[in-house]
Specification:
Length: 307
């Protein structure tokens, strides 16, 4: 059966059928999926009951795996999943819901803020692939929402586009966690959360479309007073996440959702995580380059050491 791609929203998101993610992909299938990603930025593959190994093999069709552990708070816990998986479930190593006050849970609550994966890394992520193994009952929350940052960019007025064209932001997990009041970090964590620089406007390497590159990890704009930068970033985020730019994904068991972090932001909505199990597992395709040229002057300004 050939790959079929059906749009789910006027701007972003499409459903993909006609592929079996348990099997190796043909070159044509990979090309069709990549073209679908370039166009729709979010792809939903329903009814894919896959193992961690099959998810890993499917992910490798699109590039190298990002190692999601480095310096992360969960390094101090034994991980439930293999090293290259981001465990964004509500489960601990014992496969039971994390206690309400557990550090791992509080850290993961940051996913309820709009973000783009790994924008706090010097080379941020390309694609994320999230597999829904167990999902709370329909209607009990836990949707994932995606905002189209290309459409949001397009809708800005010309003066704003000109103003932001060459702006550079500092991103860090420290900023996004501080928004939620999670500020107790070890010295080791502070060290690994050193801010990195990211352009505010990115250009897609294949389509040439521009997009806003925002995330809750963005804490300031290089050369700007912090309060002015934060209020502007907040305004831009408010603009970019208006309902017309957002596709809300309501999960069914065994959906695999794949998104392009270069052109979208996402967030998970709240649900009763003490009552329900939400076992969702993420693999991540590494990006290939920083978004800013590694200019020594900018690095010094930001006080950041970007490898
Ligand atoms: C992620 C993430 C949201 C969700 O996997 O990067 O933000 O719906 N997850 O769990
Ligand atoms: Mn995420």
């Amino acid at each position: 059966m050939p790959v079929a791609i059906r749009p789910l929203h006027p701007h972003l998101g499409a459903e993909v059928t006609g592929v079996d993610l348990r099997k190796p992909m043909t070159r044509d299938e990979v090309a069709a999926i990549e073209a679908g990603m370039d166009r729709h930025a979010v792809l939903v593959f329903p009814n894919q009951d896959i193992t961690d190994e099959q998810q890993t093999a499917f992910t490798l069709n699109f590039g190298q795996l990002e190692d999601t552990t480095g310096g992360h708070v969960l390094k101090h816990h034994e991980k439930r999943l293999a090293r290259h998986f981001a465990d964004v479930s509500n489960l601990g190593q014992d496969n039971k819901p994390l206690a309400r006050d557990s550090r791992a849970r509080m850290f993961n609550l940051g996913n309820r803020l709009w973000h783009s994966d790994s924008s706090f890394r010097a080379i941020p992520a390309k694609y994320s692939l999230l597999s829904g193994r167990r999902i709370p009952p329909k209607g009990s929350g836990g949707n994932t929402e995606f905002a189209d940052m290309r459409a949001a960019y397009d809708a800005l007025d010309a003066a704003t586009k000109a103003e932001i064209e060459d702006l550079v932001c500092e991103h860090s997990l420290m900023y996004s966690r501080a928004v939620l009041g999670f500020t107790e970090l070890t010295e080791e964590e502070k060290e690994s959360f050193r801010p990195v620089l990211q352009r505010l406007v990115r250009t897609h390497p294949v389509t040439g479309r521009k997009s806003l590159y925002l995330a809750s990890h963005a804490g300031t704009i290089v050369g700007w007073p912090v309060p002015e930068a934060r209020s502007f970033l907040r305004d831009l985020t408010e603009h970019a996440t208006q309902p017309q730019f957002v596709y809300a994904h309501e999960w069914r068991q065994f959906d695999l959702v794949m998104w392009d972090n270069r052109q979208t932001m996402h967030r998970v909505r709240r649900f009763d995580d003490q009552k329900y199990v939400r076992d969702v597992r993420r693999t991540t395709v590494a990006g290939d380059a920083p978004t800013v040229a590694q200019q020594p002057a900018l690095q010094a300004l930001a006080g950041a050491q970007v490898a």
